[in-house]
Amino acid sequence: MAEHAGPTSSAFARDGGLAAEADDHFHDECGVFGIFGRQDAAAIVTLGLHSLQHRGQEAAGIVSYDGTQFHVERHVGLIGDTFTKQSVIDRLQGNRAIGHTRYATTGGAGLRNVQPFFAELADGGLAVAHNGNITNAMTVQRVLQKQGAIFSSTSDTETIMHLVATSKERDLNARFIDAIRQIEGAFSLVALTSKKMIGCRDPLGIRPLVLGDLDGAWILASETCALDIIGARFVRDLKPGEMVVVTSKGIESHFPFEPMKSRFCVFEYVYFARPDSSVEGRNVYEVRKKIGMELAREEPVEADIVVPVPDSGTPAAIGFAQEAGLPFELGIIRNHYVGRTFISPGDSIRHMGVRLKHNANRKIIEGKRVVLVDDSIVRGTTSQKIVQMVRDAGAKEVHMRIASPPTRASCFYGVDTPEKAKLLASRMSVGEMAEFIRVNSLGFLSIDGLYRAVGEAARDNDAPQFCDACFTGDYPTRLLDMEGTDNVRTLSLLANGGQ
Amino acid sequence: MAEHAGPTSSAFARDGGLAAEADDHFHDECGVFGIFGRQDAAAIVTLGLHSLQHRGQEAAGIVSYDGTQFHVERHVGLIGDTFTKQSVIDRLQGNRAIGHTRYATTGGAGLRNVQPFFAELADGGLAVAHNGNITNAMTVQRVLQKQGAIFSSTSDTETIMHLVATSKERDLNARFIDAIRQIEGAFSLVALTSKKMIGCRDPLGIRPLVLGDLDGAWILASETCALDIIGARFVRDLKPGEMVVVTSKGIESHFPFEPMKSRFCVFEYVYFARPDSSVEGRNVYEVRKKIGMELAREEPVEADIVVPVPDSGTPAAIGFAQEAGLPFELGIIRNHYVGRTFISPGDSIRHMGVRLKHNANRKIIEGKRVVLVDDSIVRGTTSQKIVQMVRDAGAKEVHMRIASPPTRASCFYGVDTPEKAKLLASRMSVGEMAEFIRVNSLGFLSIDGLYRAVGEAARDNDAPQFCDACFTGDYPTRLLDMEGTDNVRTLSLLANGGQ
Amino acid sequence: MAEHAGPTSSAFARDGGLAAEADDHFHDECGVFGIFGRQDAAAIVTLGLHSLQHRGQEAAGIVSYDGTQFHVERHVGLIGDTFTKQSVIDRLQGNRAIGHTRYATTGGAGLRNVQPFFAELADGGLAVAHNGNITNAMTVQRVLQKQGAIFSSTSDTETIMHLVATSKERDLNARFIDAIRQIEGAFSLVALTSKKMIGCRDPLGIRPLVLGDLDGAWILASETCALDIIGARFVRDLKPGEMVVVTSKGIESHFPFEPMKSRFCVFEYVYFARPDSSVEGRNVYEVRKKIGMELAREEPVEADIVVPVPDSGTPAAIGFAQEAGLPFELGIIRNHYVGRTFISPGDSIRHMGVRLKHNANRKIIEGKRVVLVDDSIVRGTTSQKIVQMVRDAGAKEVHMRIASPPTRASCFYGVDTPEKAKLLASRMSVGEMAEFIRVNSLGFLSIDGLYRAVGEAARDNDAPQFCDACFTGDYPTRLLDMEGTDNVRTLSLLANGGQ
Amino acid sequence: MAEHAGPTSSAFARDGGLAAEADDHFHDECGVFGIFGRQDAAAIVTLGLHSLQHRGQEAAGIVSYDGTQFHVERHVGLIGDTFTKQSVIDRLQGNRAIGHTRYATTGGAGLRNVQPFFAELADGGLAVAHNGNITNAMTVQRVLQKQGAIFSSTSDTETIMHLVATSKERDLNARFIDAIRQIEGAFSLVALTSKKMIGCRDPLGIRPLVLGDLDGAWILASETCALDIIGARFVRDLKPGEMVVVTSKGIESHFPFEPMKSRFCVFEYVYFARPDSSVEGRNVYEVRKKIGMELAREEPVEADIVVPVPDSGTPAAIGFAQEAGLPFELGIIRNHYVGRTFISPGDSIRHMGVRLKHNANRKIIEGKRVVLVDDSIVRGTTSQKIVQMVRDAGAKEVHMRIASPPTRASCFYGVDTPEKAKLLASRMSVGEMAEFIRVNSLGFLSIDGLYRAVGEAARDNDAPQFCDACFTGDYPTRLLDMEGTDNVRTLSLLANGGQ
């Protein structure tokens, strides 16, 4: 058709395409939270999302239902700045609500893709909030569009809504099951209708989702820290492939997928989850300390002090120091007042090597052999700067120890990663990387060391216990949308700044 | 289905449901503007919408296409405050663009319903901006939802998009024709794809739409004043039922409906259109002056001065004064700095009868027999206050003359009107109304007088030349959505303040 | 002294230096309003300032006193947008308050110079709001600085505060009198202390100030329209040189200056004051109509229609049409939605001659001999554009009639005027001006015609009844600050955008 | 005099009066930074202030001088949100600039007191930024007011400006010396004129001020971390009572006071300064670790783990753990996304004991005997909540160790402290405090222990080496303004929200 521009000139792209370069980490894209059957539900959701803020700082949304109608609020910015306004909370009436917080895409991205997505279906309103990434979303979207569906966002969540809407099943549970059976990839979903709250995890259980209870009201949340903030009781992790349906009569559990061996994202332990959360039965802080201990055993070094790259390297550095019998010192101080928008002002100082976020503590470092512990290396640019800063502060030697294996492959399961070519470990050996970041020595944790830290004997290469694709390139699902393309993220983007 | 709340508890309502009480007028809900084939297209659209600001002050949107991708900007507020920012205009790249300005609904309504609506269809992006109201939108929407469509706004524009998307035709023109043949009511649409700009009017031509030309670039606009602001040439009014398709090769015209006699909205002449516009071949200011002359003949009065209720009563007052041989005087001064948000501050003065918008000029009025000329009476509350103010200023007699027949029925064609029971003329005789607003005499123009003012001999009651339903209750189309309900506007509304 | 940069490199300039080019008019810089002894005083002041918005749209301030402490609010923007917020009004507790609205200076000027000025003196708080200009303010300021005074704004109001503070008198009334005796120029002041509200006018009474009464509470306001909005009673104009002191015991009147013949600003009648106000005993609308009549007699013309340049030319056009026996027609329509920030977007259309504010009504003008009536010509650029627009609309002849004499000299009494060299009438004869703006004929009202319109037989050249310096160059006071300089406005300016 | 309200009903109060209750700490009120002789000076100041953000988060200001005029920007909010906008930095032209960041007072406090203060004196512009508090400011202010000075802010900085302005000396250096000789208390000032940058410390050197050098441009800053961020060289601490004057010819040093023994604020080491700063020759992190070690020796305890109250208790906890031979564990996780405005939404959850800022890590704490290390106890309310949270997480025993002596007295030297009666240690014994916060044991560092940690043998009670008034009540200066009043902070306050 003449006016058909074709997918490559389409206005759409998957969300992950907008990598924020500011911070050299992988970033989990979302946190979800829902509560059913509790007065001031939206206020509870606000608190839950606040505790999940580390999973996404750009924007957040809450949908509540008050028995008669749905209320939708979506705002760009931190929960604590946007949803704590009385007027906002007052509009979100009802005793059930779900919410979502999302990772920074680019500045102007606006509200178009902020979740929960809400739409009116034939049988009433449906809101869906999603953590993960549907790896066949575009393929499904194209089929749906050919059937006449229209898409008003670039979110794969909208694809799920369409699948629910077009299902031939008659009952919402059946329609929902019909929908999630058609999608592939990683998804931890929370959904709300006028009568139900639904939570489900993909059959591999790649992203976390926990069940909690607050004085009889059921809660779904990405991590247990979101239960702690409100004093809710942790009930259990949802099982991989489980779908729970909460109504005013109680909770019921469905298992719509063939059982599979779990492939939980091991990087949640390395970096994404909050240290005080427990996910899939393990405390995150404890795992990180054990990682540090394994690292000290695998990559020992003669040194004077162990210094974490704050804050993400701190637990592993504590473990490393304990195991190595070296003093743990705060040799780098982090400035927590750095906002997302801090731009070095003035042309003449843009290349001064300004230390906005981290500063070395010269008195601690001067003349010392320093072990720096960080959680991971992505592009290597931040590591370069930090090593230089530590050298400028007078370190005699700098030894970098990384609390994970080299990250060699992109993630397609809801994590913002650079394309593979930009991953330092995909194009350099460890020795080359050491030279690139200018350290006396560089050591990574081995993949088996990582598995030991989470309590396994070793990686079962025939049937890995976790998703570790970013380290191994071993993706646990098909990647249908990515087939035949270098990277789905190169699609053009709808510029929708002003919404 | 259990979770089906049914339409009455749905989150949706047609847009018109949110009557702004601040101003006792009917309000046209929208203005549209598009240009194809001109550098800085969005800047031109900005100017066009600025000149159509009287058709809607709440919010505006522009969609442009730059040859590769679409750009969407939607903002709450006046064009001159939002779209004139360099950063906004810079994002709207491309040599073709359409825009829309909409009437105030309630304060918190947010961006959800701001047009143009944009979505990705199987064959690429489609943007639609709409002036009017689809009277079978909900009926169609329910059918579409049963087929699996999901609706993310409450705009009937989204219904049109779905009809285009689900059409079985293969060519966009055919699909568009297929869509508009399924809808009823009033619609003057402007649409944009990557290759085409489309404009069309409903078969009765209820709302205006004109075609213009700026150095070879085609323009579609609600009124001619939007051509004047940029020095564009007026080509012609689109015909009722006409659909024009503009491509880089030129313009072509389609007539997808059975020919019908035109039923243009006569209230556009009374109040909606700008006095310097010409619509359907008549200059609005001239019609209003003739209305004033007819009124002077039909409802003469012994008086000293003719005073308009500014600004909408001014042209008719000039005509009345000329015909009656009475002096035309600015006996009431309007304060143009009244914004939408002006709320009398302080409890103790809320009922002081504060004159925020109009003030009587005592020196002109004192001791005089005053003919006040206004365009219409809706609820009567503003008239009451103005008459009281003129009396307080010392008028000896106050005679109100209204430049239209009594408004007795709601409009369902894209005009914000109160429900019928709140229309003063629907529950009072002229005598009772005179008493209610406390005037010495009250006169309305007759329906035939109005038809004479627009150049007809009289209303042809068998085949009326205009839509005059607000005066006569004679609706020129079916009102499918309203059947069996008192008023479609009573549906519950999605509260979506924060978007 | 080494670090003394001298006055020419000082950070200060008188306010008037920032001519806004957007609108080819002289602009009065301020309106003042105060009330003493009324609950919700600040809310009343808000309403009063709203009705004085035509005297200044940039920013406004209110100071109230609640019996214990003063409250100060200053905001950039229209009264109706800023002071009507509940939180703002709620902070302005007290039964006495004064306020000020000021004319646009440049965009970034910020809050530094927004009045009322408030400071703590030895004997308590003092707030002063000022309409006018002190012509020896810089001279006095330099003396005060040498005595150790520091200035934190560029407002001449601060000079008055310093004079009150440093007076050797012991009683506030005496100190205030001491202060105003040292200043020259035009001033209509309203001041507030914890016990008193003071109002005063300069000895020539150049700017207006009226006294009103609202159920026993005294009001001071720039114009009577500010009394009308709240239904207050007009008591009288303050006399030139009069100082009134309002306390809880009542009002007393002082005359601290030698009596002089009044020299009220005649331009208040021509343009500044609102048509529904009465100042110095004359209704502004009536004066303007009489001006139009005089103009029709002095500068008659064969023509078909009289068209005002809206809105300021409208009353004179009505008078002209009545006197000339020609039809009065709205041949030019004004778009009231033009905000201060409207900038033609896009480089390619900046010189399209866009008609943001006015549009000619072609159907009315085409083929006609048109008399355009405007209030004044300042730079002539706007007149040029309007004439061109009327010609483009097909006028056969265009005759411009100006409702005042040619403006040949700058105003130094609180009016924003361009420097003399930019005034069209200062460098062209009437014939040259006619050619410049491309009209068939151009006529100005004579100075005696203007005096007749305000009720005098003619101008008394030995002892003029008004200040008409902008027409005659005959300044009624010394201009101490301007001596030896071309223009005081060339002083450097403190750039204080962010405050 | 009749209208004299007297000081107690004055609109003014010293700044410190607005204690923010949100956080149970003393708070230093300000950080200052200046640079002279460097392109893009304001951008450098922005970076310097960003690194001093911990000394004040409410608002900041920068004044630059470009050789012709001064530029002033003041904004409420974090440096990284306000001063990094290109438009703001672009307005701050010049190669010399000073800046100031200030601690939160109340929300509505507005811009009135944001520093640097700028005013025009007889010999040109003067800007002053101040860290500290003038203890005789009100006394001096009253004298100045009686001489005719007017005060437009409540800042004691304005008092200094007036003293400079009214000095009889002829040279700026002499005038500045004259001014600072008249003030008492704590002050680390940075001032800017068109020719000079001046820095000075009070004769006791209570607050810090360091001198740095960036490629030949002189820098003054509150702490060394502000030098590190831009890679500037630390030159030395200013000496107590020293005044340095920087001009384009270089730097000169003056000592206008009689030499006194230094009394640097020991609390800068305990809490105010950043751990990576070195002040008065000691590295802050090192001092804090030594404090922890002293504390472990003075107040040992049988326990399983040492847990810091993050982030301020962390360095002392590391020292404690090292000295005690106990594992250091992150048993409490801090949420860094808590903004100043986070208010628990919804009435029903206001008293849920929500954990917005800290969460205990149950897996680490459960069943353990926990030593909590915090820097100080002010009101005790936060300690109560944290202890409860740790108990809820299953701690077997909770032992609190405080890295400073009990805070028993208010600070009058530029620190925001509650009034004495609200200090827990001023009304309870250590035993009562232990009961109040519900710990198994509570131990504070002794005053001599604190002195040992900073390198002294013990406190010299006859001539203390530091200002430790908050622990001892031994104020090193007169407190003139506070004499005869319970607390100067009880004065009424000018409510100036909207500025």
TrEMBL record, chains A, B, C, D:
It catalyses: 5-phospho-beta-D-ribosylamine + L-glutamate + diphosphate = 5-phospho-alpha-D-ribose 1-diphosphate + L-glutamine + H2O. Its EC number is 2.4.2.14. Pathway: Purine metabolism; IMP biosynthesis via de novo pathway; N(1)-(5-phospho-D-ribosyl)glycinamide from 5-phospho-alpha-D-ribose 1-diphosphate: step 1/2. Binds 1 [4Fe-4S] cluster per subunit. Residues 30-249 form the Glutamine amidotransferase type-2 domain. Its cofactor is [4Fe-4S] cluster; Mg(2+). The active site is at C30 (nucleophile). PROSITE patterns: GATASE_TYPE_2. It is an enzyme of class 2 (transferase). GO terms for biological process: 'de novo' IMP biosynthetic process; purine nucleobase biosynthetic process. Keywords: 4Fe-4S, Glutamine amidotransferase, Glycosyltransferase, Iron, Iron-sulfur, Magnesium, Metal-binding, Purine biosynthesis, Transferase. CDD domains: GPATase_N, PRTases_typeI. The keyword Magnesium applies. InterPro entries: GATase_2_dom, Ntn_hydrolases_N, PRTase-like, PRTase_dom, PurF, PurF_N. Mg(2+) binds at S312, D374, D375. [4Fe-4S] cluster binds at C265, C411, C467, C470. It holds the Pfam family Pribosyltran. In the C-terminal section; belongs to the purine/pyrimidine phosphoribosyltransferase family. Catalyzes the formation of phosphoribosylamine from phosphoribosylpyrophosphate (PRPP) and glutamine. PANTHER family: AMIDOPHOSPHORIBOSYLTRANSFERASE. This is Amidophosphoribosyltransferase. It comes from Aquibium carbonis. The gene is purF.
